[in-house]
TrEMBL record:
Pfam families, per database record: Phosphodiest
CDD domains: GPI_EPT_2
UniProt-recorded name of the protein: PIGG transferase
Membrane-spanning segments: 380-399, 419-438, 450-478, 674-694
Species for this entry: Sclerurus mexicanus (tawny-throated leaftosser)
Length: 703
């Protein structure tokens, strides 16, 4: 029918497309005073040339990998992509690169190796550069530019993508107001000039070429990114082609679009299907040079894709305002086509077409807004249940810390008494009632509500038991605090300076991980804390071994004084020592002094040995911006060719942990610890990091 003809992919609008992505390019670097000063050619093209300029708004998180996904898929990535940004897996969603490769387009890429990880085996030629060596401002861009002269002379490509990282590195190291920013912008301007002139000289009569200039994200006033400040989310988006009309008159303020709109626009420009999960709108000025009939066809394609995505994700999609507006515009479009085919080419038909175009654009905007809101909706009920369980376990562990850090190293979780209390059963009933109310009234799908009732009741019982355990532990602490101390001796559960340092250091390290960039040196706080802890331990050992205590014996050379001192020690410690021969006592005393002396020096040397081992471990597994790219033993172990070695090392380490700890454990604790360590190894085997002895060929076990 008519709709199937409308949804047929139209021919491409451009012959060759070059995408130049300048990492951390803020909009004021092009449209502001810095653009006029350091990017004169680009500014001239924007103000007087054949171009369309926009300010693209990026959604948080403003880090590279999620932004590349947004540019190429048209979808809105989530905050989990912050973590994945450090080790980007292959992108499985429908995207522009995959569509271009499927259509036979030859794609060449040079720049940030995140693209190579996201789109493996998609490029006919590529050269990736590392994005984490932020002190490199020059070579990281030179490794991209060195290919330009050779590639621009060739004709064996359709899509060229360049990702420059130097500006982002300058921002991280010195900020957006650094004197290094100007020369880098001038370098980028010369590169854009070279590409533009080359594309103009090689244009064919049938189809023009297109140059796209954009940024993945901006940068804050401190040079970082990841958040939602204005400098981080606003980036320039330029379309430069001879297909556009030459600009005239005074420069106007660039129109604001969404970063996700690029995927839909490039898909139409390259004659490709719009990505299935794209929520972007077609940027109409890019196709503004075409006839009204062609423009209506392009916006209808975009609306059809958005409405289909809405149908797949919303049960009551027919009531959505955007869907209703699209159907009305589609019906009017059919009537307009009938008039057009009848040969009616009057001014009235042209005005009707322009009015219809506005209706389509309004429908697209509403559809995109509805879909974007759906992406931002989270399963709050399931998240709250998980958060409550985590907080209860954390609180229970914190309440058990004083006893765990005491000399007896007790770790008691008072769960058995609360399980038989009235509060436990009342809380279970109340939580089950809340679960029934939430799940029967929830409009959207909820993961926790989709579970079986038996599983849900088990979770409610777990929450109730943990809450009763927390209340029981708090009650016991208050009860113990009311008891008078029998002696003036400090309680064994009191916290020492080292305990306070460990707790404060752990909290400080957790807070240090809240940085927005995630490519800085946050892990250095852990190295600093380990060194500090070793030095404090050394100080504590020196104080215990060399400072004289009140009850310590006064050693002397003769046997009698040794005997008296031992008796004095026994009196101080209330220990009865039988009488012994003076010569035997002298030998025993001298041997015990030798043992104590050797133990003392061993204990003093231990922190320094730990410091040396930590330094060696840092070399075994390189981390951080400055050293992560260097080969080390960790990379060798984690490679797919050395899984047996890694498996042996992991199994040996877990066995050593078991044998070192199990000596002071009860039988139940030994069994629990053995099962826990076996679970750790099984999980690593399930995700493919290690293998079991009976596995062959390194195949992962079923997950």
């Amino acid at each position: 029918g008519m709709v199937s003809n409308w949804t047929k992919i139209p021919p491409p609008l451009f012959h060759k497309v070059v995408i130049v992505l300048i990492d951390a390019l803020r909009d004021d670097f092009v449209f502001g005073s810095k653009g006029k000063q350091f990017m004169p050619y680009t500014t001239q093209v924007v103000e007087k040339g054949t171009s369309h300029s926009f300010v693209a708004e990026a959604k948080p998180p403003t880090v590279t990998m999620p932004r590349i996904k947004a540019l190429m898929t048209g979808s809105i990535p989530g905050f989990i992509d912050i973590v994945v940004n450090l080790n980007s897996p292959a992108l499985l969603d429908d995207n522009l690169i995959w569509q271009a490769k499927t259509a036979g387009k030859r794609i060449i890429f040079y720049g940030d190796d995140t693209w190579v990880k996201l789109f493996p085996k998609h490029f006919v030629e590529y050269d990736g550069t590392t994005s984490f060596f932020v002190s490199d401002f020059t070579e990281v861009d030179d490794n991209v530019t060195r290919h330009l002269d050779r590639v621009l002379k060739r004709e064996d490509w359709d899509l060229l993508i360049l990702h420059y990282l130097g500006l982002d590195h300058i921002g991280h190291m010195t900020g957006p107001n650094s004197p290094l920013v100007g020369p880098k912008l001038r370098e980028m301007d010369n590169i854009l000039k070279k590409i533009h002139i080359s594309l103009l000289s090689k244009e064919e009569a049938s189809l023009p070429n297109l140059l796209v200039v954009c940024g993945d994200h901006g940068m804050s006033e401190t040079g970082s990114h990841g958040g939602s400040s204005e400098g981080e989310v606003h980036t320039p988006l330029l379309f430069i082609s001879s297909a556009f009309e030459k600009r005239s008159g005074s420069p106007t303020k660039p129109e604001r679009v969404q970063q996700t709109d690029l995927a839909s626009t490039l898909a139409v420009g390259l004659g490709l299907p719009i990505s299935r999960n794209s929520v972007g709108n077609l940027i109409l000025p890019v196709v503004g040079g075409k006839t009204i009939r062609e423009q209506l066809r392009y916006v209808h394609l975009n609306g059809f894709q958005l409405s289909r995505l809405l149908q797949e994700n919303t049960p009551a999609y027919e009531k959505d305002p955007g869907y209703e507006h699209f159907k009305i515009a589609e019906k009017s479009h059919g009537n307009w086509i009938k008039l057009y085919l009848e040969g009616n080419n009057s001014e009235i038909l042209l005005n009707l077409g322009k009015k219809l175009l506005k209706q389509y654009l309004e429908a697209l905007k509403t559809l995109s807004s509805s879909l974007s809101k759906q992406v931002a909706q989270y399963d709050m009920y399931s998240m709250m249940v998980g958060t409550v369980i985590i907080l209860e376990v954390l609180l229970l562990l914190l309440l058990s810390v004083p006893k765990a850090l005491s000399k007896r190293a007790e770790f008691e979780v008072p769960l058995s008494p609360p399980l038989f209390s009235l509060l436990f059963y009342l809380m279970c009933l109340m939580l089950c009632a809340v679960h029934v109310i939430v799940c029967t009234s929830a409009e959207s799908l909820c993961y926790f509500c989709s579970m079986s009732w038996l599983t849900a009741v088990g979770v409610m019982m777990l929450i109730s038991a943990l809450m009763c355990g927390v209340l029981s532990a708090i009650a016991k602490i208050f009860e113990n605090s009311q008891l008078p101390l029998k002696n003036s001796v400090v309680s064994s559960s009191s916290w020492s300076e080292i305990d306070v340092l460990i707790l404060a250091g752990t909290i400080g390290h957790v807070l240090s991980l809240g940085a927005s960039s995630f490519i800085e040196e946050e892990h250095q706080t852990w190295y600093f804390l380990i060194n500090t802890l070793c030095l404090v331990l050394c100080q504590e050992l020196c104080r215990n071994n060399f400072l004289i205590k009140e009850c310590d014996p006064h050693h002397s050379a003769n046997v009698k004084q040794n005997s008296d001192s031992i008796m004095e020690t026994s009196e101080c410690k209330n220990i009865d020592i039988p009488a012994a021969d003076s010569s035997k006592l002298g030998k025993a005393t001298s041997s015990s002094e030798f043992i104590k002396g050797s133990e003392k020096w061993i204990s003093l040397a231990t922190p320094w040995i730990i410091l040396i081992c930590c330094r060696l471990l840092r070399s075994l597994n390189q981390t951080g911006v400055q050293w992560a790219h260097r080969p080390d033993f960790g990379h060798w172990l984690t490679s797919s060719d050395h899984k047996p070695e890694l498996s042996f090392l992991a199994a040996f380490s877990l066995l050593m942990i078991f044998f070192l700890v199990q000596r002071r454990c009860s039988l139940v604790s030994k069994i629990a610890m053995a099962l826990g360590l076996l679970g750790v190894y099984s999980y690593r085997a399930a995700v493919g990091n290690v293998i079991f002895p009976w596995q062959h060929g390194g195949k992962d076990i079923s997950k």
